[in-house]
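re the bet — no i am not wrong, look at it urself. input seq straight from the record:
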Amino acid sequence: MTTQEPKYTPTTGAHGETTRRTSTGSSRVTEARAAAQRVKLDTQAELREQGATEAKEAAALKKARGKKEQQRLQASRRATTTIAHAVDDYLLDHEGGNHSDKTLEWHRTALGLMRTYFEKERGITLVGEVDASAINAWFAHMRKSPGGHGKPRSERTIQTYARSARAFFHWLVRRETIERNPFDRVTFPKVGKPLIHTIDAEEFERLLLA
């Protein structure tokens, strides 16, 4: 009786196949996670960039609104500030700067004359209404009208009043009550040099003999 040995047929083990499948699955999971992480990081970067852009736009809009509001307030100030009120503030500013009483009195006189002329002769009460033609008309008026003692004003006196008015409007520009100084377009009064009387030799000898 012959005993037959069992035949051996090589087969692939189930464990090895499972290992390969597990390795492949883990690799896919890792890649998927990495891709998801990249998407997340890209999304966060885009959000940060978008947030920075929105912040810049908001800041620019706020600045534009602030500038517009400032312009509106300045326009309102120009439309409502009277010459009388502005002159009072100007004198108080000089007084606060400890300027001399003589300087204050000179400004008070000059600006008082200017304000009275603008109100009575030109119908101007607001600082924003004063222009170069009104100022030139005031200069001409001071040359034609008598001064406090009933005598014509000298050119030197008129020039000094003009300096006071010019400083006043320059102060209004610094305070942003007006945008431009109307004196920039004004022909400023000039004072002529005093004439020197010359004498000839004969007249000089007569003076010596006298």
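see?? The mean pLDDT is 80. told u. also Residues 109 and 161 are 8 Å apart (CA to CA). so pay up
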